[in-house]
């Protein structure tokens, strides 16, 4: 392969980690700091932080390259872990939706119902009675259609969920697992927050800064613009952690696992504010699903503002596993292969084909680290009798760069 020798560094890495998102970076940090072993973490993108990557754009607005990322969790342990690497800013996300000719809160709450139907429901009980009168009984709740129709009835389902879901996934809600639309609750109170988790916070100086701190350890080297296929045979390593798409790792042996993609259109406006809240959804109209404005989310004060339109797409980078039974069956076949593959760990949203939020991926990575501690003995390097830091040469693919 084409390659160039850049600098003398560990000749045999204890661990090669593919993907510098939450899954890969958390494991790199744990292994480096708790096992004192050497880690080379690579990413084929030109940056760390995976899909949580944020940056200041040309206008100076802090924005999220891969769409709005709002941190929320009920886990104290996950917040405690990440708090080693960032301070936080409190932020509760709010979402409005354009429904017919009105702008109403999403998730559906009492305010939403009153606005859409010209009602004045005053209590949870009244709102519940209203919803019950519209809900359709569904014998067994299996799909993303069942779960909504059984709670709010067909009309609200069609206004809020059918169009959005069909755009977002390229599938009718009846073809998707119930877990997808179950992410969005229905409320009878007037709570208009998108999430109700105990912790709703944003990294004070952004995700990328937090990842820089996670990866700032002398046992960790970061290589960017480097695809696993280009480096796997030239960078000696003892164990591998893979956080990319699992079907790709196995050269699509059983065929492609479906992932849904998005095209992001980022637009900067020379005005302080573009919309009233962080995200406005367009369930009934438009080719995009939602528009998000970062300054609400980051708290940045700036004369300009940047927004992102999300256009769902069948092609492009894999962003979402698509939860439905046949895909889970195919994933299980890849998972069986993964279980038979020695010295390789599969972690993260793409490698375990799970529609996980950031906190869940952090939790999964921390759990995997505990398993590693229990099952993978510390080894002694035959190179120099130590665990790590052997001298040698690092061959890099053309275009790759070391971050540290
Ligand atoms: P990723 O962040 O995808 O990282 C995997 C990395 O591996 C990537 O950088 C990729 O380039 C690299 N890689 C893959 N294959 C290779 C290879 N062969 N060689 C080298 N590198 C490779 N979660 C929330 O909690 N809140 C939100 O508000 C939220 N909003 C989201 C909005 C959008 C539009 C999307 C798409 C996701 C959102 N998420 C949100 C989910 C969140 O992005 C994920 O949970 C999280 O980023 C997953 O981390 P990961 O490490 O598993 O994967
Ligand atoms: N959804 C919808 N209408 C909405 C918001 C969400 O139909 O106004 C459905 C849609 O299928 C979406 C899913 O609920 O993919 C989960 O929404 P969430 O906001 O959690 O999506 P994410 O932020 O992960 O893209």
CATH superfamily of the largest domain: NAD(P)-binding Rossmann-like Domain
**Small-molecule binders:** flavin-adenine dinucleotide, uridine-5'-diphosphate
CATH topology of the largest domain: Rossmann fold
- Give the C-alpha Rg: 23 Å
What is the oligomer described by this structure?
Answer: single chain
What is the global morphology? Answer: globular
Major beta sheet, specifics?
7 strands, mixed
Order of strands, main sheet, comes to 9-8-14-15-16-13-17
Number of strands: 20
Number of separate domains: 3
The CATH class of the largest domain? Alpha Beta
What structural category do the secondary elements indicate?
A: alpha/beta
Number of helices: 12
Q: What CATH architecture of the largest domain would you give?
A: 3-Layer(aba) Sandwich
Q: β content, as a range? A: 15-25%
Question: Mean pLDDT, nearest integer?
Answer: 94
* Distance between the ends: 24 Å
Topology:
Elements: E1 4-8, E2 13-18, H1 22-34, E3 39-42, E4 54-56, E5 62-64, E6 72-73, H2 76-82, E7 88-90, E8 95-99, E9 102-106, H3 110-117, H4 124-134, H5 144-169, H6 178-181, E10 199-203, H7 207-214, E11 220-224, H8 228-231, E12 237-242, H9 246-249, E13 259-269, E14 279-281, E15 290-293, H10 294-298, E16 305-313, E17 320-321, H11 325-340, E18 344-346, H12 358-375, E19 393-396, E20 401-402
Parallel strand pairs: 2-3, 2-12, 3-11, 8-14, 12-18
Antiparallel strand pairs: 1-19, 4-5, 6-10, 7-10, 8-9, 11-20, 13-16, 13-17, 14-15, 15-16
Helix pairs in contact: 1-12, 4-5
């Amino acid at each position: 392969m084409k390659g160039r020798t850049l600098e003398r560094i560990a000749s045999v890495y204890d661990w090669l980690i593919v993907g510098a998102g939450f899954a890969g970076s958390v494991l790199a940090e744990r292994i480096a700091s708790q096992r004192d072993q050497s880690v080379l973490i690579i990413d084929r993108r030109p940056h760390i932080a995976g899909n949580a990557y944020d940056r200041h754009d040309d206008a100076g607005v802090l924005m999220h390259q891969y769409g709005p990322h709002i941190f929320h969790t009920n886990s104290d342990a996950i917040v405690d872990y990440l708090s080693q690497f960032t301070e936080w800013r409190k932020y509760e996300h709010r979402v409005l939706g354009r429904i017919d000719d009105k702008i109403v809160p999403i998730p559906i709450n009492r305010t939403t119902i009153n606005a859409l139907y010209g009602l004045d429901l005053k209590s949870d009980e009244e709102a519940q009675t209203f919803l019950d009168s519209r809900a359709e009984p569904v014998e067994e709740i299996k799909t993303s259609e069942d779960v909504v129709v059984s709670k709010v009835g067909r009309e609200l389902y069609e206004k809020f969920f059918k169009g959005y879901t069909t755009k977002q996934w390229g599938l009718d809600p009846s073809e998707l697992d119930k877990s997808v639309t179950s992410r969005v609750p229905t409320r009878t109170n007037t709570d208009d927050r998108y999430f109700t988790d105990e912790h709703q916070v944003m990294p004070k100086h952004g995700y990328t800064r937090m990842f820089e701190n996670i990866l700032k350890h002398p046992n960790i080297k970061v290589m960017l613009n480097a695809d696993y296929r280009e480096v796997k045979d030239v960078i000696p390593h003892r164990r591998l952690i893979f956080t990319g798409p699992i079907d790709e790792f196995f050269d699509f042996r059983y065929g492609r696992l479906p992932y849904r993609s998005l095209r992001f259109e980022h637009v900067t406006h020379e005005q302080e504010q573009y919309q009233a809240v962080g995200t406005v959804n367009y369930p009934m109209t438009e080719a995009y699903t939602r528009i998000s404005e970062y300054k609400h989310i980051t708290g940045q004060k700036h004369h300009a503002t940047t927004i992102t339109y999300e256009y769902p797409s069948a092609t492009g980078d894999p962003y979402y596993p698509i939860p439905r039974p046949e895909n889970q069956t195919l994933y299980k076949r890849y998972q069986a292969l993964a279980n038979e593959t020695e010295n390789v760990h599969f972690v993260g949203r793409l490698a375990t084909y799970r529609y996980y939020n950031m906190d869940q991926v952090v939790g999964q990575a921390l759990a995997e680290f505990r398993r590693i501690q229990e099952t993978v003995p510390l080894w002694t390097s035959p190179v120099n009798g130590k665990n790590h830091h052997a001298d040698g040469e690092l061959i890099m693919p053309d275009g790759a760069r070391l971050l540290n």
